[in-house]
Amino acid sequence: RKEVEQDPGPFNVPEGATVAFNCTYSNSASQSFFWYRQDCRKEPKLLMSVYSSGNEDGRFTAQLNRASQYISLLIRDSKLSDSATYLCVVFGGATNKLIFGTGTLLAVQP
Amino acid sequence: EAGVTQFPSHSVIEKGQTVTLRCDPISGHDNLYWYRRVMGKEIKFLLHFVKESKQDESGMPNNRFLAERTGGTYSTLKVQPAELEDSGVYFCASSQVPRWTEAFFGQGTRLTVV
After folding, report:
1. Count of other CB atoms within 10 angstroms of residue A77
2. How would you write B16-77 as a 3-class SS string?
3. Which chain B residues are Cβ-neighbours of A32 within 8 angstroms?
4. Which regions of A9-83 does DSSP assign to beta strands (E)?
5. pLDDT tens per residue, chain A (110 residues)?
6. Nearest to B48 among A32, A96, A101 (CB)
7. A87: closest CA among A14, A25, A27?
């Protein structure tokens, strides 16, 4: 079983749609959680950290459920520029390294 | 301020050859990480330097891979001899402290072994 599991997609949505991505992780000792965004042939860039209380940054809302070991990302009012791969990333329990999911591909259509 | 830079951006080599990838972290960043993405798989950790010391090299796939960070500045990752399964994108990331909210990735080196 992979340490971080994501639906690879692709998610094809029209502009203005709301889309949600889910992710599960296997190590209950994981400490920190992130969503990264990766554009085609570019490096991953931190989109936002994820907290148990939930956090929002503009059109983006992230949520963490530690009991279910589940992380989500909600994007409202999708823009064409949101098209990218969204990586669910977990900071490993006892180790100082990031564990990546395979990513979910989002394509926002005009 | 310059970001994390990696050289070369692309490399195509034949099986059995040697390739050296280079990463220049952001100036002043003590923590330097190498990651790799093989086609169709997730990005995976290779190793972590703190200054010139290897803090964790548990992700290095085998002894054909050698990473160095002399003087605690730039780092090199040598693959010798390269095999077909080494093809992928090699990313470097750096941070001043080991907090991922403050780490930045380079654009990666796309390695193709033919």
Report:
1. 11
2. CCCEEEEEECCCCCCEEEEEEECCCCCEEEEEEEECCEEEECCCCCCCCEEEECHHHCCEEE
3. 100
4. 11-14, 19-25, 32-38, 44-50, 55-57, 60-65, 70-75
5. 788 999 988 999 999 999 999 999 999 988 889 999 999 989 999 999 998 888 999 999 999 999 999 999 999 999 999 999 999 999 866 667 888 999 999 999 99
6. A96
7. A25
φ, ψ at B79 (rounded to 5°): -120, 120
pLDDT tens digits, B24-78: 999 999 999 999 999 888 999 999 999 999 999 999 999 999 999 988 899 999 9
Contacts of B56 in chain A (CB under 8 A): 95-97
Is B106 in contact with A43 (CB distance < 8 Å)? yes
The contact set of B with A (CB < 8 A) is 4, 33, 35, 41-45, 48, 55-56, 58-59, 91, 98, 100-101, 103, 105-108, 110
> Which pair of tokens denotes residue A24?
């599960």
Q: Is A74 exposed, middle or buried (0-12, 13-18, 19+ CB in 10 A)?
A: middle
Q: Which single residue is written with the structure tokens 């960070």?
A: B69
Q: Specify which residues B43 forms β-bridges with.
A: B37
Task: Please answer whether residues A67 and A75 qualify as being in contact, where contact means their C-beta atoms are separated by less than 8 angstroms.
Answer: no
